[in-house]
Amino acid sequence: MAYSNASRIAELLGLEGAPVNMRKLGAKRDGHGGAKIAVAKMTAQSGGRSDQPSMHACLAARFVTGHETCDASSDCDRLSVRKSGRLCVYPALFNGTSLLRLFIVGSSKPVLFIGSIYELVNDVEISELVPRFSFVPSWLPFVGELFSKYLVTFSSAMALLNAVPCYGLDGQLMVSTIIESFFSKWAPSRRRKLNTLLLHYGTFLLSFNVIIGIFRSFVPFFKEFYF
């Protein structure tokens, strides 16, 4: 059956249909490669529905979409169109799929996409940023944004690592300051013991995690060459 929601296709394609000369199409059909689409040939329309039975054909997608577009469904009923042997065809899309033409800067031919719009939205990143100068690459803002995210993540990880109560790190001074502030009523010898205990415990945990990480990194290497 024909795709009844022609206005939806017009919204997605930015056109009402493609007036195709069916006689010329038969001679040129084999000369155009690419994907094939099933189209419904709509003749006379009244109130958004076809008055005559619709016909289907499998045509080359790029060849059909390369024709001039129809401004309205009534263009198919014009006498001049009928005399020229052209008919307005619409894509027969099912299961919620859509036919889109994507125009890429620097490419002479549009990219045809047949599928779900949600897949296209997830796979293609669209930005409102346009380079003011031609020598500025369009990917520069995305690279700068990604670099900033990695920089913040790396800086946060280094800050947390530096705060570990371990000898040689800033955590050593932080632990001493915290003990002096919260346990000021304790005897100095008792505060020093607590400080030493926390530093030993933090140094042991940090060293143990570093050794485990190095061991896990070299285990596949030893398995490959020695086992």
From TrEMBL:
Regions crossing the membrane: 198-219
Keyword Transmembrane (UniProt): yes
GO cellular component assignments: cytoplasm; membrane
Alphabetic keyword roster: Membrane, Transmembrane, Transmembrane helix
GO BP term, example: membrane protein intracellular domain proteolysis
GO molecular function, one term: metalloendopeptidase activity
Coiled-coil positions: none
Top-level division of the source organism's lineage: Eukaryota
Record protein name field: Membrane-bound transcription factor site-2 protease
